[in-house]
Amino acid sequence: MSVKKFLNDPDDLVVEALEGLVTASAGRLRLHRDPLWLESAAADADRRVTLVSGGGSGHEPLHSGFVGPGMLDAAVPGAVFASPTALQVVAAVRGVDRGAGVLLIVKNYTGDVLNFQIAAEIAAEEGIEVETVLVDDDLASESDDGPGRRGTAATVVVEKVCGAAAARGLPLAEVAELGRRVAAGARSMAVALEGAVHPGEDVRSFDLAADEVEHGVGIHGERGIDRRPMAGAHELVGALTEPLVAALGLAEGDRAVVVVNGLGSTHLLELYVVFREVAALLEARGIGLARSLVGPYVTALDMAGASVTLVRADDELLGLWDDAVTTTALTWETR
Amino acid sequence: MSVKKFLNDPDDLVVEALEGLVTASAGRLRLHRDPLWLESAAADADRRVTLVSGGGSGHEPLHSGFVGPGMLDAAVPGAVFASPTALQVVAAVRGVDRGAGVLLIVKNYTGDVLNFQIAAEIAAEEGIEVETVLVDDDLASESDDGPGRRGTAATVVVEKVCGAAAARGLPLAEVAELGRRVAAGARSMAVALEGAVHPGEDVRSFDLAADEVEHGVGIHGERGIDRRPMAGAHELVGALTEPLVAALGLAEGDRAVVVVNGLGSTHLLELYVVFREVAALLEARGIGLARSLVGPYVTALDMAGASVTLVRADDELLGLWDDAVTTTALTWETR
After folding, report:
1. What pLDDT, in 10s, does the model give residues A63-93?
2. Is A234 assigned a catalytic role?
3. What DSSP letter does each residue of B206-229 carry, written as one string?
4. Is the CATH code 3.40.50.10440 the one for domain A10-184?
């Protein structure tokens, strides 16, 4: 008996959810099949840089919820926690290119990196200009060898800033450079209170004792830095945030965009308690809270836990952040 | 050992979360203490009807996430799953009244009804014009005697429509009448796959077997109609939606606003699968899908489950629905 979820056939989950999303979008999104990718149906037809991102499903609203004016032109969904194929990515790149080039935003996982790279090469051979921004913000996975830091919640900030830059009509090289600058100035750390349950399975992806947490967990349940005793929010959040401040070298007078991200089943009340602790920590150090997001933006199925992302901010980045965006998961008028 | 959550002292959860929300709002929200209530800090100062809602905490983003231009002027939070006091409500009414009267939007629970009623009487004695809209959409709790249907996710639709009507400058009696019409045309039904855990406690509020669900559950975990076998999404959602269609007498050619609401820990992928089933059911019956919301809007802490709300729609209601709104949890430009 699998753990209870709203499912028909687990193999159909991703496609059925996308069908639901497209129906709910009332014409704002369009689904392509064989291969599968999701496109913004906004009427804007400027010759401008377009943006494609994607990755394994199970992290919603990432990436499908960020398709729309001011952010992504297309999202390419894999199966749950599995990379999309290169052919899916190529189809999206072909579909959204308007002659000004396509930016690929890729989270740093072996499968995603490989498949997006193959897609970029195929597209380049077809004469489509392509640049790639790699997002690798997860400080817990930093090491001297191996695949490098994993890509997690900073992806939302990269997608927002690059989407705004593309909407302003900046050329591909500049949009890509902005994305790399945001990614380079972003670090995240997550803590899990409970593991996730994959659709159709009957156990959590990992088990934690009633009095321990997984500090530095990845968004697919990858092991973190260590298991630690459960503690109050103040202590848990300090342990997430202090290493980010140190890694980015943030000091008095600097400014940061803060994302407090729910990993799945953590309640909004708790996420605001987490945010309050982050804000207090930054204030105590004289670091400016430039902008913030609080909510489930990059989930790990129904994992209980949260991540904190800090992004070094400057006027250019904040100006782009404030530009209008109209997607399912992020919408604002020019601020 | 309590179940792990991001908490400092559980008694401080609600206030700390509100502090986090206000900090994240960057000046858009203002918190009042002694008594506790949350106010929109938007600069708009028209002489117009203002809206106050509230109720127990633990349902976020309801109500705090819906404070802002085009929706609520104030939210009055109680402790988790407990009504705010009449004095909190009175303070909010006094604070937001601009001489054109105040609309109270109240979910149908004994404590809330009583405390908002006392507040309305006190405010009226002070010369403030007050009207109340009672939201009682939960079909599972319909009975010939007792307190009547509980108020659940239709509250979001009532708050949105009344907020738009107030922003348009309609008089209090008309705003209240609109709210009553929306509430009368709205029915909801929820199913729980797992119970919730209260902050600081160590067990779920109710236990379900691995192969059963609570059909017709309330947003505080109140018992529903019966316990049923776990089933696929198609069957579960049909069992929620068909009684709503019947209760509202929706027939071919009618239109409905649909809210598919996550009760807490249910993933967005699943909610879109649920929505897909609702949309297919309506389409098969020739009922128009006028507008929709899919996401966690009225939660029951971290309960696993979902509710479906149908609201009978007409051009006036949809026009108000489409008006601009700028809150933490619901934002769009005029559609």
Report:
1. 999 999 999 999 999 999 999 999 999 999 9
2. no
3. S---TTEEEET--TT----SEEEE
4. yes
